[in-house]
């Protein structure tokens, strides 16, 4: 595997950030890679996936490109009192990385995932642009924004006023439904996680109200890297099943 670190200035942020990328060792000529856009949690950055898990080792068996952008404490928003990180992610990171690297833009080859705050970001990205992806991976996600004022001393930098209620539910309800229903969703959380009840209710809404294709998996664990490292092989194995059909890349949505 190859690990690349891109540090460059971005016009939307008017500052430099670093994006880490894992690439397969062998990339055939004129071949576009399937890519997992993997988002970090609150208080972390994109390097956390490389420093705190064996993602590099596991990715050897997937042949994926994995891109982990740095999103600060933005909650994947254009911050009320900060920088426009949503514009940075959607208008710069994704298209610019496709210019720099052989990354496919086909939605069948694009997957988005994240942990905690990054799980929220993955859902937000997929529900806003369901035609960009074929699969979403949510790990211990923040799905109820009303918990944030108690967790974040800098909460007011993110949202102006009270935390939006049912933010993700409204995004999903108002998304283009045909594209939304093509998405495959994997949501996992530890049974001791303080956000489990919120995830139970959120997944129930996705499955029973919107009738989306959601695999919901819980096992022993808490809201920490011990649990996230433990479930990473299961997640990539699930994604491999989404990506492959009879050993070949999917050629159409199921």
From TrEMBL:
Coiled coil: none
Sample GO molecular function, one term: acyltransferase activity, transferring groups other than amino-acyl groups
Pfam families named among the record's database cross-references: Esterase
Protein name as it appears in the record: Putative esterase
Upper taxonomic lineage: Bacteria, Bacillati, Bacillota, Bacilli, Lactobacillales
């Amino acid at each position: 595997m190859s690990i690349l670190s891109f540090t460059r200035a971005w016009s939307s942020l008017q500052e430099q950030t670093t994006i880490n990328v894992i690439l397969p060792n062998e990339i055939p000529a004129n071949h576009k890679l399937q890519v997992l856009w993997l988002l970090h949690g609150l208080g972390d950055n994109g390097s956390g996936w490389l420093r705190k898990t064996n993602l590099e080792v596991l990715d050897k068996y997937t042949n994926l490109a994995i891109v982990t952008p740095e999103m600060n404490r933005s909650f994947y928003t254009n911050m009320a009192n900060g920088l426009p990180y949503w514009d940075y992610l959607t208008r710069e990171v994704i298209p610019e990385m496709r210019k720099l690297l052989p990354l496919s833009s086909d939605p069948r080859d694009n997957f988005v995932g994240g942990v905690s705050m990054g799980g929220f970001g993955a859902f937000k990205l997929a529900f806003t642009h369901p035609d960009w992806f074929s699969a979403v991976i949510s790990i211990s996600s923040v799905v109820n924004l009303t918990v944030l004022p108690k967790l974040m001393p800098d909460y007011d930098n993110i949202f102006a006023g009270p935390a939006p209620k049912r933010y993700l539910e409204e995004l999903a309800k108002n998304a283009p439904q045909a594209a939304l229903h093509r998405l495959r969703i994997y949501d996992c959380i530890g049974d001791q996680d303080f956000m489990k009840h919120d995830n139970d209710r959120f997944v129930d809404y996705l499955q029973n109200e919107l009738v989306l294709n959601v695999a919901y998996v819980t096992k022993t664990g808490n809201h920490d890297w011990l649990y996230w490292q433990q479930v990473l092989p299961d997640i990539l194995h699930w994604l491999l099943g989404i990506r492959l059909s009879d050993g070949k890349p999917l050629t159409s949505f199921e």
